[in-house]
Amino acid sequence: MPVITCVEDLKRIYKRRAPRMFYDYAESGSWTEQTFRENTTDFQDIHLRQRVAIDMAGRSTKSRMIGQDVAMPVALAPVGLTGMQCADGEIKAARAAEKFGVPYTLSTMSICSIEDVAEHTSKPFWLQVYTLKDDDFMKRLFDRAKAAKCSAAVITVDLQMLGQRHKDLKNGLSAPPKLTVKSVANMMTKVQWGLGMLGTKRRFFGNIVGHAKGVADPSSLSTWTAEAFDESLDWDRIREFRKMWDGPLIIKGIIDPRDALEALNVGADAIIVSNHGGRQLDGALSSIRALPAIMDAVGDKIEVHLDSGIRSGQDVLKALALGAKGTYIGRAYVYGLGAMGEAGVTKALEIIHKELEVSMALCGHTDVTKVDRDILMIPRDFSDRWQ
Ligand SMILES: Cc1cc2nc3c(=O)[nH]c(=O)nc-3n(C[C@H](O)[C@H](O)[C@H](O)COP(=O)(O)O)c2cc1C
C-alpha cells in the first residue's frame, strides 16, 4: 500500500481505479475550465502569516454549522453519481462523515436513495435539492427528506441548466454506464470497481427512478436536466420551496453579493458561496475571490459557507479566516472514495483535519472558531481587481 500524505495522492490512486467515464465526470469543469482551475490557484494567491512562541497546546477544530456540532467546519458536498465512483458510494461517504463527525450532503442525483442512506446510517444527513418543474416530485422529495430525518435541505440554485463539460458528452456519461466497445474495454481494466458494481443493486438514480414521471432516458444526466429541471426558477419559486421545508435551509451556488441578499430575504439559514466546482458558468469568479464582497454584504446577517477548489486544510483555514463559518469538499472526498471506498473518504477527512490543525497552530491559534483575517496575507487587489 502506498504512503498517502495528501489529497493529490488519493487522486492518483482514484484515477487508476475508477472507469475513465466517471473520473472524467468528476475531474472536469465547464468549457475551457478556467473557473475550475482558478478555484484552486486563487487559494494559492493567499499566504499565511506565521507566528512563533505562542502556546499551541490544547488545539480544537470543533465548531458549529447551522447550529449543529461539527468535528471541523468541513462538510461533504453533494456529488451526483457518487455511487458510480464506487459501489454504494453515497452510503460509504455518509458513514465516513458520520464517524468523523462532519455533515454529509446527499445529492438529488445520487445513486443510493434518501431511504437507503438513512437505513445505513445512524445520524441525520443533509439533502441537496435540485429545483425541478414537477411540483408533486418536489413536495414528495421534501416529505421523503422529513421522513428520513434529514437535518437540513440544501437548495442548489446555480443549475437551472447544465453547464457543458466536453468530456461527459464525448464519453456518453450515463448511470448505469452504456456498454460501448470503448467503455467496456476501459471497465474491464477496473477489476475492483467492477466486482463492487456486480455486488450491488444500486446502479440507477435512486431518488429519481420510480419517483419522477415523464423523462425519456433517466439514465442520462444531460437528458434529465434538460427535460426535468426548471429553467424558469426565480426567487418566488424558491420561496415556495421554503414553505415546503420548515427545517434548516441552505442556499447553494451564490457568487454575487446581490444574490446573497436575495437568499437572505427568502429566509435561508445559510448560503454556500460556490460556483459548483467550476462546472457551471465558465469564467465566473472563483469562490474564494468572491467571498470577501459577499461577507461585506451579508456576513453579519446570515451564516456564510464556501466550497469550490478546497483540496487541503490550508484552503479551509483561508476560507474561515475570510469569514466563512463552514466549508465543503467535493472532489477531495470523491478522490478518496474512488481510491479506497469508505476508508478513502476517512483518509481525505483525516488529511484535511491534520493540515487545518497544524496550519492553524503555526499561525498562532488553537481554536478554529477564533481564526480571523489577521492570519492572512492577501494581495491588495485580490477581491476588487475588476469593476
Ligand atoms: C462530480 C461532481 C458532481 C456534483 N454533483 C452535484 C450535485 O448533484 N448537486 C450539487 O448541488 N452540486 C454538485 N456538485 C458540486 C459540489 O457540490 C461542490 O459545489 C463542488 O464539488 C465543490 O468544488 P470542489 O469539487 O472543487 O470541492 C458536483 C461536483 C462534482 C465534482
UniProtKB/TrEMBL annotation:
FMN binds at residues 78-80, 107, 128, 130, 156, 252, 274, 307-311, 330-331. Its cofactor is FMN. It holds the Pfam family FMN_dh. It comes from the Bacteria. Residues 1-381 form the FMN hydroxy acid dehydrogenase domain. GO terms for molecular function: FMN binding; L-lactate dehydrogenase (cytochrome) activity. It is an enzyme of class 1 (oxidoreductase). Glyoxylate binds at Y25, R165, H276, R279. The active site is at H276 (proton acceptor). The keyword Flavoprotein applies. Keywords: Flavoprotein, FMN, Oxidoreductase. GO terms for cellular component: plasma membrane. InterPro entries: Aldolase_TIM, Alpha-hydoxy_acid_DH_FMN, FMN-dep_DH, FMN_HAD, FMN_hydac_DH_AS. Belongs to the FMN-dependent alpha-hydroxy acid dehydrogenase family. PANTHER family: 2-HYDROXYACID OXIDASE 1, S -2-HYDROXY-ACID OXIDASE-RELATED. This is Lactate dehydrogenase. It comes from Thalassospira xianhensis MCCC 1A02616.
